[in-house]
Specification:
Layout lengths: L2 H6 L1 H19 L3 H12 L2 H6 L2 E14 L4 E11 L2 E10 L2 E8 L4 E3 L10 H8 L2 H4 L16 H4 L2 E10 L2 E9 L7 E6 L6 E8 L17 E16 L2 E15 L4 E9 L2 E4 L12
Length: 286
């Protein structure tokens, strides 16, 4: 047994553990403004960030039913953005269900009816009823050139510190996002406390809140709890910008009678193109 070499590494291991813990504790005491500054630096320099006016992210996508059914099917995805305009397409061919498409023209939004009878999925109805997800360019995180943290002052939104939160065993730094316009959603943004990369967004709507009337009420009054999670990983740097190449979005509803349904889209970016010309028709609200 060669114990001596192992023991010789103990101080280095302890130092690494100490430094990791110190960084985490220090990050927990930072103000929202300090976290924001470090997050923007984690994306890229101010010059690199401001130079990009449009972006298209493409790659394969897999749709899964996690609870309330089973199955998985592969498809494709395209996320296009230009300024505050965006078009999110998650496409599969599963008989009646064809996927999702969410469009924002910078003001109005459109959610496609993607079942064969032109109706929307529960996920689609949720995004329609809680349009802040699209209007604020929160969906897709930093993939969107309209990511609100790039211009928080211009959005007139505010950030509130939530401290360190343990998510799936990992310590993350939390900020609550409050848009200028009131919303039923609780929106929490989570960052890696060592890199300050945005790695997760959680949207929650509890039973005490209500869905807006009219068309947006289609999500259903029997639903008592909504939760949507976005996770970002596998970061890579190109054009001076560090962006995730893996994106997972999970939507869960719980009804008053105890039924739960949870679905997931897993997207892998095989192509990220900045400053590409995008057909204006991509952002037309139907």
């Amino acid at each position: 047994m060669r114990l001596l070499p192992l023991r010789s590494h103990v101080p280095a291991i302890l130092f690494s553990m100490f430094m990791t813990g110190s960084v985490t504790l220090w990050a927990a005491d930072m103000t929202p403004g300090e976290i924001l500054t470090r997050h923007l630096d984690a994306i890229g320099s101010e010059r690199a960030r401001s130079a990009v006016k449009s972006r298209v992210v493409q790659g394969p996508a897999t749709y899964r039913i996690l609870v309330g059914g089973s199955g998985a099917i592969d498809g494709k995805s395209v996320v296009a953005s230009e300024g505050r305009k965006s078009d999110y397409l998650f496409k599969i061919n599963a008989g009646r269900y064809r996927g999702e498409q969410f469009i924002c023209d910078g003001d109005k939004i459109s959610v496609a009816g993607t079942y064969s009878d032109k109706t929307r999925s529960e996920f689609g109805n949720f995004v329609l009823s809680q349009d802040v997800v699209l209007r604020e360019n929160l969906l897709g995180g930093v993939w969107s050139v309209g990511w609100p943290l790039l211009d928080l002052e211009g959005r007139k939104a505010t950030l509130h510190g939530e401290g360190m939160k343990k998510v799936d065993g990992q310590e993350l730094l939390g900020l609550r996002y409050q848009p200028k316009k009131n919303t039923d959603l609780d929106i929490s943004l989570y960052f890696d406390p060592q890199t300050y990369r945005h790695v997760m967004t959680v949207y929650r709507m509890e039973p005490s809140t209500s869905v807006a009337g009219g068309e947006t009420a289609m999500a259903g009054k029997s639903t008592r709890r909504y939760r949507m999670e976005e996770r970002f990983s596998d970061f890579q740097t190109a054009d001076g910008l560090t962006l995730p190449t893996r994106y997972d979005v999970r939507y869960t509803i719980e009804s008053e009678i105890g039924f739960t349904k949870s679905v997931e889209w897993e997207v892998k970016a095989t192509s990220i193109i900045n400053d590409i010309s995008i057909d204006a028709r991509s952002f037309q609200v139907k």
